[in-house]
Specification:
Blueprint lengths: L13 H5 L10 H5 L23 E7 L6 E5 L5 E2 L5 H7 L11 E2 L3 H18 L3 H16 L7 E8 L7 E10 L1 H11 L3 E2 L4 E2 L1 H4 L10 H8 L10 E6 L4 E3 L2 E3 L43 E2 L2 E2 H27 L7 H13 L35 H4 L3 H26 L1 H16 L7 E2 L2 H5 L5 H13 L4 E9 L16 H15 L3 E2 L6 E2 L1 H4 L13 E2 L9 H5 L7 H10 L26 H4 E2 L11 E8 L9 H16 L5 E6 L3 H12 L1 H18 L9 H4 L2 H25 L3 E2 H28 L8 H30 L5 H37 L23 H14 L4 H20 L17 H12 L5 E6 L8 H5 L12 H8 L5 H4 L8 H10 L5 E3 L18 E3 L9 H13 L11 H4 L3 E5 L5 E11 L6 H23 L11 E4 L3 H4 L5 H23 L4 H24 L6 H27 L5 H31 L5 H33 L5 H17 L7 H13 L1
Parallel strand pairs: 6-9, 14-22
Antiparallel strand pairs: 1-2, 3-4, 5-6, 7-8, 10-11, 12-13, 15-20, 15-21, 16-17, 18-20, 19-20, 23-27, 23-28, 24-25, 26-27
Length: about 1350
């Protein structure tokens, strides 16, 4: 079953794709450019202005105390010529400013160009994945800082004196005029460029407090020029003007540089930005295939129309057949006496009947049956054509006779040796039951519902073994009390100060947990087990909490400066979680980054907010991220801490809020607890059934013999036999080592009791109704009864066992194990019934004949006397009232039409049956997880991560192979990352369930390798990454950066370990340690040579709430990964699949079953039906008609049960599949006994035979299985477990009601119309017996229907 918690995590590295540890910010991009010396302008025609302007600044005058950046001096002269020796530096930094013939005039000198070069490193590492964006960004900053026409678009607004240089002034504030066309083009070219490790656009960083959603061209430029960003030495005010204007009598030509759109190439050697960074570059993707259309006839539901047509066809066919049958057989339906008299009259009148007409080659001593009639139709003989003798029929008769004779002998033997038989059966059962000492119960949902060989399970094992398992998460969902927690004006309740302070206390108390480790004197705290993404540089735990915007500090939370409050800081962090600044003058440098060095994403830490309006959130979400391990032995510390966490939260309460909580181990713990929570309910259910069985078996003829003729001891003994069979079955598999499941413990006793009790009632009640023949001993009497009913018991038990053995072919572990345990238990139960129970019945009959009391068997009350045979009240009701009424002339057609209607109405809704298992149903009704799961559905707004794994063997060092993976410029439009990006588009995500563009380690590795200050190793040891603070020391470190090309060949694997070790920071933003440490598997051989093994590209699913959301997300991810595999293998020379991609998310292993649940259900039911058909056919004496009748009735029961599941909101899943397979087995009990009795009855018409079968077996079926189960099922309605209430109470009730209605109402009527002929051997026996009775006795009309008929029945038996 599927249990999954959406807590915003990604996988091992995908988690940190969500919380990127960005301590750098692009806001200093333009600022670092202002830290250069002032320059002089020259009218080189290269600026974006339209006039012949000059410089406005030149050289540094002073240092800004706030940003620690240099402030340029005011200068209004022309630009100066750049020395030729610095032309190479200019070409690498601002090539757009280079003049001709080495005559380059700029507002920058040599030192300023060096400063620009250093300042370019960070923006280049972020933006170079989109060449046109980077080109536009670079050229814009170069023109602003060093352009020769600055005065055309820049206007100094505020000058301040320079203390160190008397008479000089520095620029403190200026106005920058740009055209709206330029601003929009500049913004559009970069707005979709992704920062790979955060899976979000770089505008999240560039736009400061506005973030991505609220960013505009004006806000982007304004933030970059604002002193409040903490980096800018001067204030730059941007103005949008589309035409030349005059400012202070000076003509201004707004800056209007030519913009290269993101879908255009910057030169012939460089491709345009990729589809991931520029939607305009995306090729027109073919539309997704249309969704399956529901079957319709016009505006009407197609299945309803089909059901209506089917109903009329079946009804018309039945009525026509019934009418024709009545017309052709006008004498049908007469009494047995009438038919016997007619037959005898024809016989005595000389009406000759050939041997063939009675259907047999009788021996010379055989007489022709007077019961046989010439006409066919509904009579017992069925006509000559069906009764013809053949090897086939003789072989079937031989099988039937041999089975009956064997059971007569066996029953007589067991009744004659009861003590030894009972002891032997008990000893063998107890010996098998010793396997209980090795009994193990599996509660792990993965082991229960996912086969070890299933695709999801194999892929999970691959992922866990190559990348480490998904993180363990402990989560709180905190809902404020509406009455006590009031929302601040314009904010949600989650931001109430008193509420936040109380939550902070709770969070800190959790961080302080010290847990004792099992079997150890150690204690463990959170830092011992938590995920620390920047370890060893930062040794803080990853805690996703809004309070981490204040570094989990009480004083920081409550700090207020002038009008700047905690809400202002939260507003900044909600817009830009990567911010390291509160953006208010005079405020302390508050940052939004958490103490662990990463971002706290609002949609992960908040809940219950409308349309991404985080400031209106009413719920807080706190997530503690714990390391997970593939080796379960390494989880001891985590399990110990989680146990203390659950204890703390279970005892915690606050008047200000309610907390829904969960630990990683909670689901397992609750499943374990659930296995014990309803023990009392189950015991009460069984006790009630036991009491009913013990009381119902008895049959008192007089009040004085009530305590003698009761069957309490025998009934309880029968129940004990059922329990012994279950114990022996469990013991056998305990010896073998097959672990059991809770379903086995909960369901199999119920199933075996249903079958076993039915057989017990049939055996006992048949004995009670069968008189003992003259000179027949008790043992022979019991043997004769066993010979009569044991074949029917064998038929039902063997059919059900074969049904379950075939059900064991299922790939679903819970279904397979249940089927195996059930099949063996049913076989053992049958063997114990025909051995141990027969012996017990023999002893009980002997006790009764000795007039000894039941239970107190040593006490004798009265004289010895033979046990009296009498019909029970229920039998008399069936014989005298129910059967005649049901099989009357007008009731029979009504019954058939009604059941046809029920069948067709069920067919109409089967295709609408819901598939899945909602998580809350799997928990006990008093579980704390129910509240947590409901809170997830109500409040959380983040989907689970998904990884597209490229299996080991891929050649990443080859450029063509790289282009099939990456998403930056130069990569293929059909690459893995590009396909994910297209599916994440707004127009596709509702179908694809892909929410975000991918995070691609290969893209960031390329950027890291190109960027200055990133790739660097120690000169003393080339295999060691140079520390970030030493990388500019050329005497210690050597750079391995290469801005011209991607790493390929040996260089690819040589520097990849450095990338995966490097933490991101202000020196290098693209370090891959935190985001990609486990996304790439590095393999080393004996010579320490490195190769790349498996790797993955990650993204997120959209918000998934229902079971359908989960399995449809899995379905689409698999389709997408199959397309990726095909793409990687396209053009393979030998046509083989060398490369494989698969999709993985933590919930896939739970929901995979629902992709094939209909196929599994239909195949399991089909296998079961085939088994029932074959066994019934063989054990009914090769009678195909009886087998078909049984199978048709069972199919109707199952179809009706499926419709009940629809109407009663029972989903189709593994649990209900187990119940359907069980229903198939129990349905055999409702059908097989009556059908076999009908087939063996030969007196009278089919209606009379049906009456006899219903009277003889119907009362036993009703009392033995229907009423027994009904009284036990009612108790299950009061179970605490919702699974019991829904899947057991509702489905079991449906099984019993539909089974009883079809077995006791429909089947007898169906047999009266289309039942099989009686078996040939029974027909011959009946003929000879009846001939003797009729020829030697006067047939009295008044006794024909009772006395003669009963004698015929006895002789037939």
């Amino acid at each position: 079953m599927m249990l999954f918690r959406c807590d915003g995590g990604g996988g091992r590295n995908g988690f940190m794709e969500t919380f990127v540890y960005i301590r750098f910010f692009l806001v200093f991009l333009c600022l670092s450019l202002f830290s250069v010396a002032p320059v002089r302008c020259v009218d080189d025609g290269g600026d974006g202005g339209g006039g012949g302007g000059h410089c406005i600044w030149y050289s540094d005058c002073m240092v800004d105390p706030q940003s620690h950046q240099s402030i340029p001096c005011s200068y209004t002269g022309p630009a100066k010529k750049l020395s030729s020796e610095y032309i190479p530096l200019l070409r690498s930094t601002c090539p757009n400013l280079e003049g001709t013939n080495n005559d380059t005039y700029l507002c920058c000198d040599e030192s300023q160009l060096k400063g620009i070069q250093e300042g370019m490193m960070l923006p280049q590492s972020l933006l170079q994945r989109c060449p046109s964006c980077w080109r536009n960004f670079r050229d814009f900053l170069c023109y602003m800082s060093c352009g020769s026409k600055q005065s055309d678009y820049l206007v100094p607004k505020k000058l301040i004196p320079v203390p160190e240089h008397k008479g000089e002034e520095a620029i403190e504030e200026m106005d920058f005029y740009v055209t709206e066309l330029f601003a929009n083009g500049f913004y559009d070219s970069c707005k979709n460029v992704l920062f790979g490790s955060t899976n979000s656009p770089v505008m999240q960083i560039l736009c400061g407090p506005w973030g991505v959603d609220d960013c505009t061209p004006y806000r982007l430029l304004s933030f970059m020029g604002s002193k409040s960003n903490g980096y800018s030495p001067i204030q730059i005010n941007y103005f949008f003007e589309n035409h030349d204007i005059e400012v202070n009598s000076t003509s201004i030509h707004p800056f209007n540089m030519t913009i290269i759109p993101c879908n255009a190439s910057i030169d012939n050697a460089t491709s345009a930005c990729s589809c991931t960074d520029c939607p305009a570059s995306c090729p027109h993707a073919p539309p997704l295939p249309p969704l399956p259309v529901h079957f319709h006839f016009g505006s009407l539901d197609g299945m309803i129309v089909v059901a209506i047509i089917f109903f009329f066809l079946l009804s018309f066919g039945f009525l026509l057949g019934a009418y024709l049958g009545t017309c052709l057989n006008p004498t049908s339906g007469g009494s047995p006496a009438d038919e016997i008299k007619a037959a005898v009259g024809r016989r005595l009148a000389g009406v000759g009947l050939s041997r063939s007409s009675i259907g047999g080659d009788l021996s010379s001593g055989d007489e022709i049956s007077p019961l046989h009639t010439v006409d066919g139709g509904e009579n017992g003989g069925c006509g000559a054509s069906q009764g013809d003798s053949s090897s086939y029929s003789r072989f079937g008769d031989a099988i039937d006779r041999a089975i009956s004779e064997f059971f007569v002998s066996w029953g007589t033997f067991c009744a004659s040796n009861p003590i030894s038989i009972i002891l032997m059966a008990i000893v063998i059962s107890l010996a098998l039951g010793c396997g209980l000492f090795f009994f193990q119960v599996t509660t792990d949902p993965i082991e229960l519902w996912s086969s070890a060989s299933s695709q999801a399970r194999v892929e999970k094992e691959y992922f866990d073994s190559h990348f480490e398992p998904f993180f363990r998460t402990e989560q709180l969902i905190i809902i404020p009390n509406k009455d006590l927690v009031k929302a601040p004006a314009g904010w949600g309740r989650a931001f109430n100060m008193e509420f936040l302070k109380e939550v902070l206390k709770l969070q800190l108390s959790i961080e302080a947990i010290e847990a004792p480790v099992v079997n150890s004197t150690r204690t463990v705290n959170l830092k011992d087990i938590c995920f620390q993404p920047l370890f060893p540089d930062v040794k803080e735990c990853t805690i996703m909490s809004v309070l981490n915007y204040f570094q989990n500090d009480y004083d920081t939370l409550t700090y207020a400066y002038k009008n700047h409050t905690y809400l202002d800081h939260i507003e900044t962090c909600l817009r830009n979680p990567t911010s390291n600044n509160s953006y208010c003058d005079g405020c302390p440098n508050l940052m939004c980054l958490g103490t662990f060095g990463g971002t706290v994403l609002p949609y992960v830490a908040l809940g219950d907010f409308p349309n991404n309006n985080y400031s209106q959130a009413n719920v807080l979400v706190i997530t503690f991220v714990i390391n997970n391990h593939f080796n379960k032995d390494d989880l001891t510390d985590a399990l110990a801490w989680e146990k203390e966490f659950i204890t703390l939260m279970g005892n915690y309460s606050s008047p200000l809020f309610k907390v829904s909580y969960s630990a990683e181990r909670s689901i397992q713990d609750e499943l374990d607890r659930e296995s014990h929570s309803d023990v009392t309910t189950i015991i009460v259910s069984y006790v009630i059934m036991f009491c009913y069985i013990a009381l119902a078996l008895g049959q008192a003829t007089t009040c004085s013999r009530l305590l003698i003729e009761s069957k309490v001891t025998l009934g309880l003994s029968g129940v004990i036999i059922v329990l012994l069979s279950v114990m022996a079955s469990i013991g056998i598999f305990g010896f073998i080592g097959v672990p059991a499941t809770l379903i086995i413990v909960e369901v199999i006793p119920f199933l075996v009791l249903a079958v076993g009790v039915d057989n017990i009632f049939i055996l006992v009640q048949t004995y009670q109704r069968t008189p003992r023949n003259q000179n027949e001993t008790r043992q022979e009497h019991i043997g004769r009864v066993v010979g009569e009913v044991a074949p029917s018991m064998l038929l039902s038990s063997l059919s059900e066992s074969c049904c379950f053995f075939l059900g064991a072919l299922s790939m679903m572990p819970a279904v397979r194990v249940f089927a195996l345990y059930a099949a063996v238990a049913l076989i053992i139960d049958f063997l114990l019934q025909i051995t141990c129970f027969v012996g017990l019945m023999s002893l009980d009959i002997a006790r009764q004949e000795d007039s000894r009391l039941d239970i107190l068997c040593c006490v004798q009350c009265g004289k010895k006397q033979d046990a009296r045979q009498a019909d029970s009240v229920l039998f008399r009701v069936f014989s005298n009232i129910y059967a005649p009424l049901l099989l009357s002339k007008y009731v029979r057609p009504f019954v058939v039409i009604s059941f046809i209607g029920l069948l067709c109405s069920s067919i109409a809704v089967i295709n609408k049956l819901n598939v899945g298992l909602e998580q809350n149903l799997s928990m006990p009704s008093d579980s704390f997880l129910l509240d947590y799961l409901n809170s997830i559905n109500d409040y959380l707004s983040v989907g689970p991560p998904v990884y597209f794994v490229v299996k080991d063997g891929y050649n990443y060092s080859d450029v063509d192979r790289q282009n099939d993976i990456c998403s930056s410029y130069g990569c293929n439009y059909t690459s893995i990352a590009s396909q994910i990006g297209v599916m994440a588009g707004l127009e596709n995500r509702n179908r694809s369930y892909i929410a975000e563009p991918p995070s691609v380690w290969l893209d960031d590795y390329f950027d890291w390798k190109r960027a200055e200050g990133c790739c660097s190793f120690l000169i003393a040891n080339e295999s060691v990454l140079c520390p970030a603070d030493l990388r500019h020391n050329d005497s210690v470190c050597m750079s391995c950066s290469d801005a011209t090309d991607r790493p390929t060949g040996e260089a690819f694997v040589q520097y990849l370990p450095f990338f995966l070790q490097d933490n991101p920071g202000t020196v290098c933003t693209k370090g891959g340690h935190a985001a990609y440490e486990s996304a790439v598997e590095l393999k080393r051989n004996a010579t320490n040579h490195i190769t790349v093994g498996a790797s993955y590209v990650s993204t997120y699913h959209t918000i998934l709430k229902t079971s359908q959301d989960y399995y449809e997300a899995l379905r689409f991810a698999r389709q997408l990964s199959a397309n990726m595999s095909d793409m990687l293998n396209a053009g393979s020379p030998d046509g083989t699949k060398r490369y494989e991609v698969f999709a993985y998310s933590i919930f896939y292993v739970y929901y995979e079953q629902y992709l094939t649940i209909w196929e599994d259900t239909l195949s399991n039911l089909a296998y079961s039906l085939i088994a029932i058909l074959v066994v019934t056919y063989v054990l009914m004496g090769l009678d195909p008609y009886s087998a078909i009748v049984v199978v048709v009735t069972i199919v109707m029961i199952i179809i009706n049960l499926l419709s009940l599941m629809y109407w009663w909101d029972i989903q189709l899943n593994a649990v209900s599949l187990v119940n359907l397979v069980m229903a198939m087995g129990i349905s055999v009990e409702f059908c097989s006994h009556i059908t076999r009795t009908f087939a063996n009855a030969c007196e009278g018409s089919k209606v009379d035979r049906s009456k006899e079968a219903l009277s003889t077996m119907g009362s036993s079926v009703l009392s033995g299985i229907t009423l027994t189960k009904f009284v036990g099922i009612v108790v299950l309605a009061f179970a605490k477990s919702q699974i019991f209430q829904v899947f057991y109470f509702r489905m079991y009730l449906g099984i019993v009601l539909f089974g009883a209605s079809h077995g006791l109402i429909f089947l007898p009527v169906f047999l009266s119309y289309a039942g099989p002929c009686c078996h040939r051997q029974n027909k011959l026996n009946a003929a000879k017996s009846c001939s003797r009775e009729i020829l030697t006795n006067d047939v009295d009309d008044d006794h024909t229907d009772s006395h003669l008929h009963s004698r015929v029945t006895v002789e037939t038996s």
